[in-house]
Design brief:
Layout: H1 2-27, H2 32-66, H3 74-100, H4 102-106, H5 111-137, H6 144-153
Helix pairs in contact: 2-5, 3-5
Length: about 150
């Protein structure tokens, strides 16, 4: 039996070596063209994420400007409430997209673009919170409006 086991071990090893040798001969190292296609895809991902981040940054600026509005009537508050709800929905969608980028981030691919994208998403969340506070939570607090008026006079 030892003889059979030895032959089996040799044959198994031979098959692995032969299959690996054949595979290496037929596949080889990626060509320059294949590497360039891979790099093009990384560049596309970076541009795609930077474009998304730029769009979110523009939305952030627009939302931030709204926090400085004064004398808001009830209809405007309703509009702001709907806008905040839509912004929260957008944030939720973007977070899911960011989670899907974890494998790229772990591999160090498009690192700066992912970082910018995440930063824009984080800022969006902060601005949504600021909008809600400025128009719905803070005005309900005693003396908030009086303090705001005093600060605006400075």
């Amino acid at each position: 039996m030892d003889c059979l086991s030895t032959k089996e071990t040799i044959n198994n090893t031979f098959e692995i070596v032969r299959d690996t040798s054949f595979s290496e001969k037929t596949s080889g190292i990626p060509t320059e063209n294949q590497v360039n296609k891979f790099l093009d895809k990384i560049l596309y991902l970076q541009k795609y994420l930077n474009d998304k981040a730029e769009k979110i940054e523009d939305i952030n600026e627009r939302l931030e400007r709204l926090t400085w509005l004064n004398d808001i009537d009830e209809d405007s508050l309703r509009q702001l409430n709907g806008l905040i709800a839509s912004a929260k929905d957008l944030h939720s969608v973007l977070i899911r997209q960011l989670v899907n980028l974890n494998d790229f981030r772990k591999k160090g691919l498009a690192k700066e673009a992912i970082k910018r994208f995440k930063s824009a998403i984080d800022t969006l969340k902060e601005i949504i919170s600021d909008l809600e506070s400025a128009f719905f939570f803070l005005p309900a607090m005693p003396h908030f409006l009086d303090n705001t008026k005093e600060l605006s006079l400075l």
